[in-house]
Amino acid sequence: MKYIKADLILPTALIEELQRYIQGGENKKGWGELSGYKHEIDERNRKIQMEYTKGKSIEDLAEQYFLSVHSIRKIIYK
Domain map of the chain by residue range? Predict the structure, then answer.
């Protein structure tokens, strides 16, 4: 059987609807949204930023949260 491009034989609206269906529809959740882990990470990052603005050093934050200094910098300067 020979390959035929869908846009040559199907209406555009149908192709777009099929793509939405295949990709999980309009209600597709992002990483960590179903488990709540994304919210936990966001909350942790807010705490890190707050503690940094109150004067805690990057090295102390890295040790407290078991993250690298580089990771703490990324969170602070985000």
Answer: 33-78
- Cα separation of the two ends of the chain: 52
Given pLDDT bands bounded at 50, 70 and 90, which one contains residue 7? confident
20: phi then psi, degrees, rounded to nearest 5:
-65, -40
Q: Could you tell me how far CA 63 lies from the centroid of its own chain?
A: 25
What pLDDT, in 10s, does the model give residues 23-67? 765 566 777 877 889 999 999 999 999 999 999 999 999 999 999
Residue 76 CA to residue 55 CA, distance in Å, equals 12
Distance separating alpha carbons of residues 29 and 56, to the nearest angstrom: 35
